[in-house]
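Issue 218. Parser rejects a valid record. Input:
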Amino acid sequence: MFKIGDILMLEPKYSSQKEKFNCMVVEMGQGCVYTDFPINLETGKTAFLMDGTQLNVTFSNEEQAVYVFDSEVLGKVKGRIPMMQILLPEAETFVKIQRRQYVRLDVTLDTAVHPEHSEFPPFRALTEDISAGGASIRLLKGTDIQSVSHLYLWMALTLKSGEIHYLRLKSKVIRVTEKEHGNMLLHVQFLEPTKNDVQTLLRFIFEKQVELKKKGLHV
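Output the parser choked on:
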């Protein structure tokens, strides 16, 4: 159910601090999975979880269904990069979560808005925020797309590694709200994004969160 590059969220079961960590799958094993060292979502710092730490692990699959399973830290491994080994139980023990509240990131991204058919000429705009499930797009006063129900967003996401991912996201128009000076916000939901698209968005948002946390620590 996993592949290299997937993002896992880890929550130690018996920690009084209610900490959350994100990590990325870097290698698969027999009855286990290897990840990079996790990042504390609150501090943005690398964490070193003790062997035997009991975990709740959350992840999403290609259908965007979200699952949680019980795991534990099995150990640390020296390789091309330092890795953490965690237990991977039988898939039958995974618990499916029915609703997903994606983390929404306030970020300005250049995006191209294309109609599904030819309802309006394509135009460029900036995002107000984005999540793995949708986005809000800033529209200039007078932009008329009220009658459109579906459109495509084209955007390029640059990851920390330097990789650039070009996404073409079919989107459903949820609503248009008015902002100051007559400008508007277009709220869209992504329709059937691929697993790669979702993972790219999650990874981009996660890396931006870490970057912002680190900047905040140095303010």
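Fixed in the parser; the record now loads. The CA atoms of residues 127 and 137 lie 4 Å apart.
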